[in-house]
Amino acid sequence: MNALIDTGHSDMTDWIDCGTVDQLPLRGARVIRHAGGSIAVFRPAQGLPAAINNACPHKAGPLADGMVHGRSVSCPLHGRVFDLDSGRAAAPDRDCVTRYPVAVTVDGRVLVRLRPLSPAAPAGAAIMPNPVMPSPVMPGPVTTLTEAAE
């Protein structure tokens, strides 16, 4: 499930620093707003953080406002459940949400890459050596980082 995400460590321009793991709300999410929409970065009670598109494909409900249970989140509008590691909706639903690579540095910083994972790519977060981050840490397309309700 969790795999080392090799970012190349030389080009970190499309990775967003979301703060430390402890700064993410437990069983909650933070939202990264960028030119292409928004990404919800979740901190489940077990395991490492995960990031998915913040909009439910059914009615665009804000998934960051949903209830986190295990490694899943329920859409706050209609209760559709999405697995944080695969992006797939629980049966009988067949939707899926876009996943984004997440890495946790050895000093506990959570990084999210703005390029989505392909459906066959491994999901979840990984521990990786502390990368050299370019300055500024948050590149141009990102406008805000906000906390969602637990």
From TrEMBL:
Q: Which UniProt keywords apply?
A: 2Fe-2S, Iron, Iron-sulfur, Metal-binding
Residue stretches making up the Rieske domain: 15-111
Instruction: Identify the InterPro entries for this entry.
Output: Rieske_2Fe-2S, Rieske_2Fe-2S_sf
The domain of life is Bacteria
Pfam families from the UniProt entry: Rieske (PF00355)
Gene3D superfamilies xref list = Rieske [2Fe-2S] iron-sulphur domain (2.102.10.10)
Name the chain's protein: Nitrite reductase (NAD(P)H) small subunit
- Which organism's genome codes for this protein? Tistrella arctica
Query: What taxonomic ancestry is recorded?
Result: Bacteria, Pseudomonadati, Pseudomonadota, Alphaproteobacteria, Geminicoccales
